[in-house]
Amino acid sequence: GTKAGSPVNGQKQGHAQATPKIPLNLHLHHDPFRSLQEPRHQPPTMGSKERFHWQSHNVKQSGVDDMVLLPQITEDAIAANLRKRFMDDYIFTYIGSVLISVNPFKQMPYFTDREIDLYQGAAQYENPPHIYALTDNMYRNMLIDCENQCVIISGESGAGKTVAAKYIMGYISKVSAGGEKVQHVKDIILQSNPLLEAFGNAKTVRNNNSSRFGKYFEIQFSRGGEPDGGKISNFLLEKSRVVMQNENERNFHIYYQLLEGASQEQRQNLGLMTPDYYYYLNQSDTYQVDGTDDRSDFGETLSAMQVIGIPPSIQQLVLQLVAGILHLGNISFCEDGNYARVESVDLLAFPAYLLGIDSGRLQEKLTSRKMDSRWGGRSESINVTLNVEQAAYTRDALAKGLYARLFDFLVEAINRAMQKPQEEYSIGVLDIYGFEIFQKNGFEQFCINFVNEKLQQIFIELTLKAEQEEYVQEGIRWTPIQYFNNKVVCDLIENKLSPPGIMSVLDDVCATMHATGGGADQTLLQKLQAAVGTHEHFNSWSAGFVIHHYAGKVSYDVSGFCERNRDVLFSDLIELMQTSEQAFLRMLFPEKLDGDKKGRPSTAGSKIKKQANDLVATLMRCTPHYIRCIKPNETKRPRDWEENRVKHQVEYLGLKENIRVRRAGFAYRRQFAKFLQRYAILTPETWPRWRGDERQGVQHLLRAVNMEPDQYQMGSTKVFVKNPESLFLLEEVRERKFDGFARTIQKAWRRHVAVRKYEEMREEASNILLNKKERRRNSINRNFVGDYLGLEERPELRQFLGKRERVDFADSVTKYDRRFKPIKRDLILTPKCVYVIGREKVKKGPEKGQVCEVLKKKVDIQALRGVSLSTRQDDFFILQEDAADSFLESVFKTEFVSLLCKRFEEATRRPLPLTFSDTLQFRVKKEGWGGGGTRSVTFSRGFGDLAVLKVGGRTLTVSVGDGLPKSSKPTRKGMAKGKPRRSSQAPTRAAPAPPRGMDRNGVPPSARGGPLPPGDHVWRGHPQASPGALRPHPWEPADDPGHVRPQSTTQNSSTCLTRAWPACRGSAAWGNGQCLVWADPSPSLGHMVPGAGPYTSTWAKMWTS
Prior knowledge:
GO terms for molecular function: actin binding; ATP binding; calmodulin binding; cytoskeletal motor activity. By secondary structure, this protein is of the alpha+beta class.
């Protein structure tokens, strides 16, 4: 079926409320402020509870879901709306298609499979704001438009960007289909998160699980939408954290996971101690994180490596390298004649052992460096002994180089596990550091904030600048919106010439200055003052400089800028690692060292600039979506709101300008050709292809759905639709069209499947009775319908079944009690149970005297002991149960027994015992003072196809003529053509009984004449029988013809009956000396006529003298 339509104005009465259907006529007199001026519908009061589950229809309204609808567009109004929703646990809010997410600092209840089902395939405004809605929109647009998509998640550190990225990947994994290979790719996508978090995330002052690297995760899809590949691009790994952390921060998670989770054998082999033993961990004196279980996370990290395909031997080497870096950091130096010397030679042994290198060579490379000297055309290598500061720098450079290359190896391992030969479609998820402003900001913060500045530029280019430029190009009527374009800040940082940017000046200083430490940094500061000192977004101070970023002013300390920008791992250290005994470590250092290599080495700044520009180019090739994350407080506590902090983020994220552009702009725009291609199905003139001018075709479509002219504008190449509701209605009409076609296809396919199914069922049923029971001529080839009661329209019967219990068989049958009295019952078979339902009068209460359905018996299929049938062509069978058996008669016994056999075998893994005999017994339950015991049914050869019943004490004799041979099988192929019957009809049953007082030809009983064949027994189904003179018994339901005990009534010579049989209470109609009796209940007569349900005319005649 189709999804519910979206509410006008995009306004909802709370989360997951069912939205009203809007007629297909698209007259939209849209007033975006109407819902704010009119009183909102209030949910009904329910005791003292004001708030309900977020998916309830009665949900407390909290602010506005889409801030385009705010009556006032100010930072205060935006922050107030976000706060109101945040306090009511609604963390998502829209600005048009942009999603605003506020970090709740707790687990929210609406990220379950239930929400995934709710948002899958739904329009954005059909449900409350959610990250699943944005993700589903991306996924469907990728398949519909055949265009790559990306989502840019931005916000400051601790705003929840990484968690948002995980929810996106989890949703895509859930809703996309695929086989075993696709499932493997999904597992890798999901398991890459804990692995990369372990090696790339750390605790910072502002975030306990801060991403200390940037990643762009491309999930690659087949044309059918199955994720069959992926690729991760990583950048900006904060290598300096390996060797130094600020107060109240930690190193990368993997170090603490290893120390907490390693086995005893690993601890011994790797020489693991407590965290405070290691210099690289004890500088901040912080080892634990609230809410983090390092031991458990270590197990997840190992499991992730296994899923990705890293063999156990390599996993061990990875952990060995991590431990080696820790031990390397404990090597300290002391001064010996202005030169560095290893303070404790003993500390060299363990890192050398773990890295597979010689401890003597390690000591040599840490305290000296080989330099190439060129003089007079000759090249000469000399060893230069390092001082203490230089030796510590060399040690740290080796540790950072080892960790960075290990991280690159893990990323490459993930990429190898997901690689595919060719790319088709992709969804990219950008998760990068948030904007950082610390008390002391260094080179790392400078690089991070530069990349965030570039991402903000993309947002401005595509949502503010490009949109307005497009309106101008297309000739759309438009009111320009003023906004701050941060391109001037990006140019300040990355310009190459006229004037050179900060990065160019930094690279120049690193290339021309041979000084280290503070000397080079002060030179950098002087050159910056000369180059960009007059820039309006730049200021300098004694120890650094200030940049006016889009997120605010940030002061950078230049100390260490030059050293970190050089980012050089000396060739001596590379040569050292290439001598390792471990092939894994040698593989991490594949360089071919060339002493004659010329040219300026690349710097960290130039690499980051190239990565940032490549990333921007990649994102610009995709259709972008945006998530703007907001951090509500610095305490990291739920429901804590710092107003000034939030307002500052609202300001620098440009939310106010974004709202203004959205309100004045158009929610949807598409090229004429693509619009026609998508909505061509709406009219016969455009389907399957519009033959005329594309512009006229679009206008024809919009007129066909009665869209108001003020809801759209026609550009030169595109159509612009103003409100999202108009688009959603177009989508709904389209879905209904496809739904109709899909139903036609499904109907044809189901009919085809049903034909085969019925043929198989008839064959199975025939095999059950083959060579064991005679068959009726009229039933051997009939189609199996299953539901002869029409349960879809019988809630009074469905109430006894389970909520989602499927029905295999349902029919009205005749049940015989201990006295062989016939009683109408409804028999229902489901995959688990057999239900027997009757009717009784209500004896008490306001419904006293009314007839209602009563569950007489519910038998678990596994509790059945077997089924007994005769060898004749009758319709009787016995259900053998543990307590008491059921003796039943059904026209559709073959269908019922075959389905019962199938379900019994499914439940018990053994066949259902079937007994075929002409002498059957069934057990009856104990009733009052009377005993239980058994009753017998004997089947004998009679005349005709209709059974004749004769009661004799505890035995019932059934006489019936010969049927088809026991070896008979179905011969008719396929199903009868023509209009299918209703499920509640029985295709082979006789017509209903004629009106009271008439026979089947419309003749009253008094007008009939002619003798009937003499006999001393009861005939069922005689064609001359009539119910015309019958009246119901006072204490029996009048509308239950299968359960009537008629009142004694005579016509003409009525005394004949009462004199002949004083015990008879049957209902008789007399004419020409014939007594016609319907369902005589008296056991003293020795004769019995059972009713056979509402679909057959079952009458009897009795001959009297």
